[in-house]
Structure formats: structure tokens, C-alpha cells
Amino acid sequence: MTQPAPPEAASATPETSDATEPSPLAGLVAGAVLVAAGLGLFTRALTVGADRGITLGGPTFAPIVVTGLWVLVAIAYLGTQAARWRRRTTQPNAARPTWRVPIMLLALLIAYAVVLKYTTVGYVLATVAFYVGAAQLLSTRPRREVIVRDAIVGVVLSLTIYLSFTKLLGIALPAGVLPL
Amino acid sequence: MNAFGDLINGFGTVLTPQNLLYAAIGVTVGTFVGILPGIGPALTIALLLPVALELDNPTGTLIMFAGIYYGAMYGGSTTSILLNTPGESASVATSIEGYQMAKRGRARAALATAAIGSFVAAIITTVLLTFVTEPMARLAVSFRASDYFALALLAMVTVTAVVGASIIRGLMSLTFGLFLGVVGIDALTGQARFTFGVTSMLDGIDVVVVIVGLFAIGETLFIASRLRDLPEQAAPLEPASGFAWLSRADWSRSWRPWLRGTALGFPFGALPSGGAELPTFLSYMYEKRRAKNKDEFGRGAIEGVAGPEAANNASFSGVLVPLLTLGIPTSATAAVMLAAFSYFNISPGPQLLQNQGPLVWALIASLFIGNVLLLALNLPLIRLWVKVLQIPRPLLYAGILVFATLGVYAVSGNIVDVLLAYGIGLIAMIMRHLDFPIAPAILGLILGPLMETQFRRALLLADGDLSIFVTRPLTLTLLLLAVAALALPHLPKLFRGRRPVLSGED
Amino acid sequence: MLKKVLSLAVAAIALGTAGCAEQSVGESNEPAAVTYPSKTLQIMAPAAAGGGWDTTARSMQKAFQDANLLNGQSAEVRNVTGAAGTIGLAELVSSHAGNAHQLMITGLVMVGGVVTNKSQVNLTQTTPIATLTSESEVVVVRKDSPYQTLKDLLDAAKADPTAVKWGGGSAGGTDHILVGLLAKAAGADAKTVAKQYVAYSGGGEAKAALLSGDISVGVSGASEFTDLVKAGELRALAVSGGSPEDVGAGSPTATIKDAGYDVELLNWRGVVAPPGISDADRTAVIGLVDKLHASEQWKQALTDKKWTDFYKSGDEAKAYFEAESTRITSVLAEIGLGQ
């Protein structure tokens, strides 16, 4: 009953961390992107520094240090990934992430923000639509089974948020076409 | 003795049904506010201020506000632990181990150690607040820019332990945070940096935007990319055992971190540029370093929840020290409370205790009562919170996205902030896939600007003379400690044989 | 919800009786050319909730509603944060042109922000309505400071521009502008003096820096240092307004002008409408804000928040906005923050 937790905790789940080992190629690509981005930012910091002058107490010093550090760390990372690439074995692709869902979610999020800001649809309708859409994307079950449930939860959620923000906190959310 | 008598009177003032009601409203509102990302206690208090003014009851209002502040801190840990979506930077350290515990079915123990740790820290520091306020405040305002720089450097060096399994990936994440920290107008000269011509970025990237992006959005996108591999349901809860969901082993592993976290949080809170984030990370780092079983860190070590949560709550009492004695607000919430004071014609400052004694003692008494209420509210709520894990995943994470967007948009009304949060979320998802730790980015974002600003302030005030960093004893001491902290981790290698004996006292 | 239903009901009644009630709305003598507001009045606070502009917007909203000035319509406050209010300003000018039901809070800080942030839009592109409140600035030193008077301080800064370390709010903000104006008036090297200014975020940090000895002079809004002046920790040297003011010392502190320097600076707040609204609309909005200013509810808000009444409306406000823009732009250029 009062056993110390470590053994149980250790045995309760498989020993990998959150992410399954990323593929060597992904690491290599990420390393290259990081180095490129770092170099771009570092160049920019240096150019601005050259324009305005670089002094220890000036505003251009920290950006140069930070982006310089970025470049160095990114190169080191690329190095470790290159080493992994050389040591790679033809491992079976056990758990490949699916990129379709997160990308569609992002697109949906952006659409949601744009609708909130630039249209007169209003918070409640936009949120219900977004909620149902996001829940659909995240669902592994057939659509028709869950869409009614999602819609009901979405309506309750968005109405609760809208009313408590506008009436209780005094933070205005776009009312839109609904007569709320 | 005198203080004790005053405090008793304070309890007399607070223990009326009406004030207790205010306290109860405060802690309840605070708990819910703490759970929502972006809507922090500062904003809530600012928005409720006009309502409170109409009540025309200074004591009741202050009691309610203190309840909101503490409640928000209790609430803030809940989402960090259950969903890995901290809503504010002070809960990030808690999420590191807390979420791992939840994933292994130990959510109740994690929530319980967080709640009880918060309670212990708040009670101890409120007692301290009663007795050491004046000297403490004097000490706190003796810190100069060069001291702050040295302190930030020391913190930066020591918390590299948070960096995680791979030093390089941890450093990369830290650098990303540091970079986000330099974006925007330079505070000292007003020059724009890395804003790429976007006006909205002149103010820099708000910490809330980064937190929401890195955690709430990043985590959801990460889940979305692995839907097929994830089990349909969350890990089954480990059977409850012991008192308040903590087994005897949990209790014995928690109480020391609570006390150590408290000891870190209180003084940092009192420092005018201290904040609540640093002590939480320092506490995490400290618990990790002295843990017997280091391997367990990163897989749900209860010490890593107990310490930071205590530090977080202790820092609030610390914040009250300079606020009450010198009228110096050291956090956004403190600044709003100062505004509330001024509406009631209470001027905090050296004379507050003489002029408004009964009110201050009532406030301090209400801190005790608020925390008792919060513990009474939060322990039973654990039963309810863990049910969150049983909500079907699509509903839960779609809801998280709604709240994340709300937290950024409702507060700023600025679409660039919202898009930035999404962009950072995308980066965070990729970071998760490539096994980059997330927490160091937050550290970089908080520590970087602190270091830079204080370094340059010190230099400016010394007319560019670098010797300022070695001529002030406090600065020099802190800098030497930083050097020692860099060197120390390598010393044990020399004494490897003796190490088990050294740490055996735990 | 209930409130909304009620206000809808009131609006319906108001509409129903509009025929006979048109002349008597607000009981003003001048005939109302247009019924205004005819829908929800939007007040934009171009800063985060809880700050000065936000509090002004919410106080206006409350006074409008409590004094029944809105024809039964309601008012709504929306925050658009960022870059000293210039994000909100840009939104007002670009997306709300011609909409008389959209107001925005503004102030001296935005005038400075337009310059330091190189904003594409400026305040003169809006339709000025009124200035509402103002606050003086105060110059303080520690109790053990060698500077007994403002003259001592400025003489020291003139003799050696780097000798005095100043501290206050954000770079290019009101406090920084005052330092530049003072240096200029004293004949000191304004650019160098302004470089000795350390920007702090919020009053708390600046207070702590004064007490720790980091900075020798603090510049901030008059109410900021009241407690510490009262406690004798700090000494107030001068206030920047038009008349002496008690900032905690127990007796009024003299103005900068009293000390012989021709500087007056008020941190004012006001309200503007979007560009492109019709003259009739402009008159109606000004009329509404005039009524707000005359209302008991607004006077109460001023007392509660300890704001100084500073009211100019219509053409007077327009002239004031323009004069301030010119003055602030030139000061900022002189201290090296403009161009």
C-alpha cells in the first residue's frame, strides 16, 4: 500500500517518451531549417547592428548574441542529426504521424479567427461552427454518429462563454447576426 | 505579540457572514478564471473593480480580490496537470511532471499535492507576512539593476537542468524563447527589433500568446497528428489510497518540496522584478537535482509538482510585502490591487499599518480564510476535475482550441496575436515530434528580456562602466554563485563513489 | 440577458413615441438634427483592460447608460491592444470610416506613440470630439538627494548632462517627453539628457529603482508617488500642470513654470470618432459627449477615479490635438526619438 511509486510508475506505461523516435530524415530536415533560419536572423541582426552601431549597452547587441547562439546550437543539432542519419537502420516506420488533421485544424483555426474579426457572423455562430468542425476533425468515429452531440455541446459552450463574458466580465464579444 | 493581537482582531472583522460570502465568491471565481488560458487574475480584478466599487465595502472587496488571486493560482495548476495546457507562465513548471503523472493515472495525487502544497505555502508565508514585512521590503528595494542582472544570470545557469535529456535540444528551445523575447520595441531606446514591419509586433510577443501557442494549441495539434496511435481513453486512474489521495509515500515525498518551494517563492515574490516564474523553475530544478531517483523525473515525479506549486503560491504573499509597505506593485495583479486601494482612499506605504491597521489585518486574516476555503473547495473538486479526462477526446480538444482562441482574442482584440499563437502552436507541434522540450522556451522568454534590460540599465546608470558588475558586493556574490552553479554539476564526477552516502539523508 | 431585454424594450418604446419625443430627447435646447445614437455605441479602448484608457472607456460607458443619454441604446467597450494605441488608431481609421457609432479613447501617449512607432496613421486623420481628463506629471527625488529645488536639478543637468539619471515610464512616453522639455527649457543638451533616462515598466519598478538608488530623479503621473512623498521617502520638486497641486507633501507643490521654466505638460485623455463622418453626425457626437460631461454621473466618475476635469470639445479639441501633435513631434525629434 505504501510502496514507493517509482517501480509502478515505471512499469505502468511503455518506456518511450511522448514522441516516438523521430525519423532520421525529419531530424536532418529540421536541423537544416534551423540553421538556415538562424543564419537569416543572424544576418538581419548584424545588418541592423551595422546600421545603428553595436555597443554593449545598445539595442542591437542582444539580438546579435541571441541569433548567434541560435546558429551555433542549430549547427550542433544538425551535427547530431547527421550522425544519426549515418547510423540509421532500415527501421520499420512504426508510428508515422498524420499531417492531414493538424493542417486542416490550423486552417480551420485561421478561418475561425478571420470570421470573428472581419465578418458580422458573431461569436456564438462562429464558435459553434468551429467547434463542430474541430471535433469532427479530431474524431475517429463515423461523422453521423457524433455530429448531433458535438453540435449540442458546441451551442451550450459558446452561449455560456458569450453570456458570461459580455454580461459578467464586460468583455465585448462580437454579437453578430443573433439577437442576443 | 502586538501583531498577534491585531491579527485576532482581523479575524474578528473577517468572520462575518457577509465577508465570508465575499471570500467564497472570490475563491470560486478565481478558480475558474485560473483554469481559462489568458484570463488571469489581473484582468478579472480589473474588470470586477467597477462592480466592487458600487458595493462600497472596502474590506469585503479586498477579501474577494485576494480570494480571486489565490483561487486563480489553485485553478491554474489544474489544466497544467490534466491536459498539459498551463494558462500562465507560473504553471509551466508544474505541468512538466504533473502531466506525466496524469498520463500514468496519478492525476488525483498530482492535483492533491498541488492543492495541499499551495495551502501550506500560503499559510506559512502569510504568517511570515505578518511579522517580517517591513525589514523584508527594505531588503527587497535595495536590489539594483546590476543585482537583478546577476540574479537572472544565476537563475539562467541553474535552471539549465530543466533543459531535459538532450542538452542541445534543450538549448535550442531556450534560444527560441530568447529570440521571441527580443522581438518588439526595445524597452530602453524604443527601437523596433525583428518586427518585420508588422505594427502589432512592436509591443513584443505577449507571454500569454506564447504560452497558449506552445501548450494549448501545440498540444492539441500534436494530439491531432497522432490520433491513430493514441488509446481511445485516458490512462485508468490508479486506485485511490491514503489520505486525500496521497499515499504515505506521496506525503513523505511531498512535504519537503512544499517547504523548499515556499522558501524560494516568498523572497522572489517580494523582489520588485522577481515574479512567480523564476521560483517555480528554480524549485523544479532543485527537486530534480536532489532527487534520489533522477530517472523518475520526466516520468511523473511528485516532487516536481509539489515544489513549484508551493513556490507559486508563496510568491503571492511575497508580492504583498512591497505592495503593503511601500506601495510598490511587483506584478500585474498587484498593480490592479493598488488601483483598488486608491479608489477606497487607502494609500499603501510605510504608514498603511498605522492609518489603516484594521483593514490590513483584516486582509491578512482573509488570506488565511481564503486558503482554508480553497483547500476545502479544491480537494473535493479533484473528483470532478479528473472526470475531464473522461470527456471524449474530440470534444475536449475542440473545447481547448475554443478557449485558447478566446483567451488571446477577447483580451487583445488583435488578430495578429491570434495568428501568432497559432503559428507558435505549429512550431510547438513540430518540437514535440522531434522531442524538443517545451519549458525552456518559456524560460528564455522570461529570463532573456530580464537579463538584457537589467544589464543595459546597470550599464547606462554606470555611464558604461563595466566594473559595476564586480564592485557591488551583492552583484559579485550572485555572479560568483552563477559560476559555481556552472561548475558544481561536474564536481560530483570526482566524488562519484561517495555520492549515495551524500544524498542518503533524504 | 435581462438587461438586454430591458434595453430592447426601452428602445422599442422610444421608437414608438419617436414622432412626438424627437424634440425632447435629452431635454436639450438645441434641436437634435439626427437621432443619435440609433444603435449600440461602440467605445474602443486602444489598450488592455484595466489600464487608463480602458478605465476611461468603461467610465464613459457607465455614465452614458446611468445618465440615460443613449436613447435607450447601450454602449459597449472593446479593447484593441498594442503599440501605444496605434493599432487601435489604425483600425479606427481603416475599418470604421464614416461610422459615427464607433468612438475611440485617445490621449497624449498616442500622440507620442504615433511618432515613436512611425505609425502610418495619425490622430489628425480622425474626427476629434473632445478631451476629457488630464493629469499633471511630477518630478521627485529621494529624501537624501542634494537637489532641493527644480533649479538645483536642472543646473546640475546643464553643467553635466550625464550627471542626473532619470527614470519613468516607457521610452518616448509622457515622462520621457517631460525630461526632454525640461532639459530644453534649462538650456541643457536635451539629447544627452534624454539618453540618461531609464524606462521602467509601470510605476512599481520606477519606485523601487528610486529607493534603491539606481536612479536619482523619478518622473511620473502626479498620483504615482503620493504615498512615498507622504511618508517622507521622496521629495516632490515640481508638477507639470498649470497650477500647484498637492502630490502628498501636505501642501501644494509648485509648478515648473513657478520655478522659472516655460514648460507645461498634461497627460490628457480624450475621445475621437472615425474619419469621414457627416457634419450632422459630428455635431450629434459632440452634443452627446457634451451631455456626458455635464452629467452628475460623469462628475462622480471623475471624483471616484481622482481625475482632473479637462474638457474641450469640438473645434477647440481639434485645435488642441493639432497643437499637441506638433509640439510632441518636435520634442521627440529633438531628443532623438522621432524622425
Structural features, described:
The complex is a heterotrimer of chains A (180), B (506) and C (339). Chain A has 180 residues and is mainly α. Chain A has 2 domains: 24-87; 100-169, no CATH class. Helix content of chain A is 69%, strand content 0%. By secondary structure, chain B is mainly alpha-helical. Chain B has one domain. Helix content of chain B is 71%, strand content 1%. Chain B is built from 21 helices and 2 strands. Chain B has helices at residues 2-14, 17-35, 41-55, 58-83, 92-103, 107-140, 145-158, 167-182, 207-225, 248-270, 277-290, 303-326, 332-343, 352-355, 357-385, 393-412, 415-433, 439-461, 468-471, 473-487, 499-502, and strands at 184-185, 192-193. Chain B has a two-stranded antiparallel sheet with strand order 1-2. In chain B, α11 (277-290) runs antiparallel to α12. Chain B is globular and about 65 Å long. Chain B starts with a helix and ends with a helix. The model of chain B is unreliable at 497-506 (pLDDT under 50). Chain C has 339 residues and is an alpha/beta fold. Chain C folds into 2 domains: 2-134 and 267-334, D-Maltodextrin-Binding Protein, domain 2; 135-266, D-Maltodextrin-Binding Protein, domain 2, CATH 3.40.190. In chain C, 42% of the residues lie in helices and 19% in strands. Chain C has 13 helices and 10 strands. Chain C has helices at residues 2-16, 18-21, 52-66, 86-95, 108-116, 150-159, 174-186, 190-195, 202-212, 226-230, 279-294, 296-305, 315-334, and strands at residues 41-45, 75-79, 102-107, 127-142, 166-168, 197-199, 217-221, 234-239, 266-273, 308-313. In chain C, strands 1, 2, 3, 4, 5, 6, 7, 8, 9 and 10 form a 10-stranded mixed sheet that branches. In chain C, α3 (52-66) runs antiparallel to α12 and α5 crosses α13. At the A-B interface, α1, α2, α3, α4 and α5 of A face α3, α8, α9, α10 and α16 of B.
Main β-sheet of chain C, in a few words? 10 strands, mixed
Number of beta strands of chain C: 10
Helix content of chain A: 55-70%
Count every helix of chain C, treating DSSP H or I runs of 4 or more residues as helices.
13
Spatial separation of the terminal alpha carbons of chain C: 50 Å
According to CATH, the homologous superfamily of the largest domain in chain C is Bordetella uptake gene, domain 1
**Total domain units of chain A:** 2
Poorly predicted regions of chain C: 1-32
Indicate the percent of residues in helices of chain C. Answer: 40-55%
What percentage of amino acids of chain C are in beta strands? 15-25%
Shape of chain A: flat
N-to-C series of helices and strands of chain C = HHEHEHEHEHEHHEHEHEEHHEH
Shape of chain C: globular
Gyration radius of chain A (Cα, Å) is 25 Å
Q: How many domains of chain C?
A: 2
What sequence of helices (H) and strands (E) makes up the elements of chain A? Answer: HHHHHH
Mean pLDDT of chain A: 80
| CATH architecture assignment of the largest domain in chain C | 3-Layer(aba) Sandwich
Largest interchain contact:
A-B, 79 and 87 residues
Low-confidence stretches of chain A: 1-19
E-strand count of chain A: 0
Protein name (chain A): DUF1468 domain-containing protein
Region (Disordered) (chain A): 1-21
Keywords (chain A): Membrane, Transmembrane, Transmembrane helix
Transmembrane segments (chain A): 25-46, 58-78, 99-115, 121-139, 151-173
